[in-house]
């Protein structure tokens, strides 16, 4: 759990992403800046073998569109870190691409 949390924080933290370390359990809650929709990240992540639960799918009001839940229960550490590395790369690319579009106007 701590290794997964540390990886997300080190790779995405500088971009304004936070990750809650619940101190146990099987899930990490990741929060992106408000303008990022995790539903837009999901298709590319899935194409690369990584999936997660979009935050708004866990909310009966549809809130938390900029959040997601990652399950870390079923994977050996090496496989988990490989998947999180893919997730972080895709997330960072998406955020940087979005930032370039926003500043181009």
TrEMBL record:
SUPFAM superfamilies: PLP-dependent transferases. Gene3D superfamilies: Aspartate Aminotransferase, domain 1 (3.90.1150.10). Coiled coil: none annotated. It comes from the Eukaryota. One of its GO terms (molecular function) is 2-aminoadipate transaminase activity. PANTHER family: AMINOTRANSFERASE, LD15494P. This is Aminotransferase class I/classII domain-containing protein. It comes from Ciona savignyi. The lineage of its organism: Eukaryota, Metazoa, Chordata, Tunicata, Ascidiacea.
């Amino acid at each position: 759990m701590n290794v997964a949390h540390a990886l997300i924080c080190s790779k995405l933290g500088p971009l304004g992403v936070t990750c809650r370390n619940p101190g146990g359990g099987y899930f990490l809650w990741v929060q992106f800046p408000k303008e990022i929709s995790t539903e837009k990240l999901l298709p590319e992540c899935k194409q690369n073998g990584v999936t997660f639960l979009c935050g708004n799918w866990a909310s009966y009001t549809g809130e938390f569109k900029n959040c997601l839940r990652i399950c870390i229960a079923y994977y050996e550490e090496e496989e988990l870190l490989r998947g999180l590395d893919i997730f972080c790369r895709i997330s960072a690319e998406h955020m940087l691409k979005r930032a370039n579009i926003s500043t181009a106007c």
